[in-house]
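Sequence, structure tokens reproduced for reference:
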Amino acid sequence: MIFNSIPFVLFFSLFFALYWWVFPKNRKAQNILLLLGSYFFYAWTDWKLLGFIIAVSALNFYLGLKIQQATVDHTKRWLSYIGLTQGIGGLLFCKYYNFFSNSFNELFQALGLQILWPTLSIIAPLGISFFTFRTISYILDVRNGKTKAVDDGVVFFSYVAFFPSLLSGPIDKARTLVPQLEKNRHFEYASAVDGLRQILWGLFKKVVIANNCALITQDVFTHYQELPASSLLIAMLLYPFQIYADFSGYSDMAIGMARLLGFEITKNFDFPYFSQNIAEFWRKWHMSLTSWFTEYVFTPLSIYFRDWDNKGLFLAVLINFTVVGIWHGANWTYILFGFLNGLYFVPLIIKGTMNKKKKWHKNGSLTGLEFFNILKTFGLVTVTFVIFKSESVTQAFDFYRCLIDKSLFKVPVLHGISMLFLLGLLSYIAFFMGMEWQAKNKNHALDFLENKMNVWARKTLYLFLAFVIFYFSSMVTNQDFIYIQF
């Protein structure tokens, strides 16, 4: 069940009615409904693995209580090791077992050894990378005294399975979401209206931008060897908009739905394509994941390597981003993607500007240097996303090879795509980025409208967005979100 589908609209409408009109002042009943709704949402997608997320929740709920009750650090440490082993071990087994098995087999064959490591038919639970990171951060925070153990099973199980962000994040820490589950919630009209605006914008990004970009990028990356380099260039330039609109569109909808239910969950994107260097980009891209790795991986590593000065900082960054790459999936392309992003930090570390944050001018103007830095960063991200998109490292480098060809100056060939469609898509992308630029200091692209547009102009814009969403919804059949696979 995906957000931009009729079954989900019916599910959420019924859920919303029960949540606010049947149980408006009963927090316990609302939490039970939230838990049951989250399990129904997950079971609709993959009912066979519902037991897995329940078992994971039960184990970590028990461990959290025992860690808090323990009076000896040694006991706390070993109890936390059980939780970490379950979380990391389950993630490695479900997502990476066959990857490592095949890699070892290829290595053995290259060495002339007749050793065959068995592969298994493993179905990785949807959203495992997201809800596992929730439980890992919870166990670590309880052990380190950053949060108290949750003693209400319904609250904790709801935290792990919170359906708006269950399949693709944001990754909320317990200290962010649990306190909201433990207190009474009241319907706030202004927050709900803004949540609806954010959902509308998220739908526009997914349905109009991401899905239409996918019509071009998927075909070109599949048949890149048969197409002129000009076609490859178009696909390479469109893919960053596709993945950003797809993933941030999901996050916008998740945040908007959470606000409709009285929750404020973690912001996941902060207009990353206006970043002036790679460090700023990663502070604004998939922010909940970046924050998670910064707290639990990068910071401990940087402390461990602190005696090595810049070399230690660079090593911590490189390891951190390599693990970020591995988090995305069992493929060498993701590992290389993360490794390269770590390497991109070297100039910033040398210049001492890695943590320097840029503040926008009050009038929103850009200097020539700032504009150049934005284009440079976007170009670097665009080239690297080729590796992320490719099915193998070999394919990625072959794509680069085919791109450097005299056919770059030929008229592009796009199967089933007219030039009129391409121009229309580019105009939608220009509108999309223009709206984002106007709201770059806000929470989302429609957040600035109250003070910038009169009521009739706003209604006209909403109707336009709704129209194009419905129009393109009927044209594109494959509407799955990219990050659900992770």
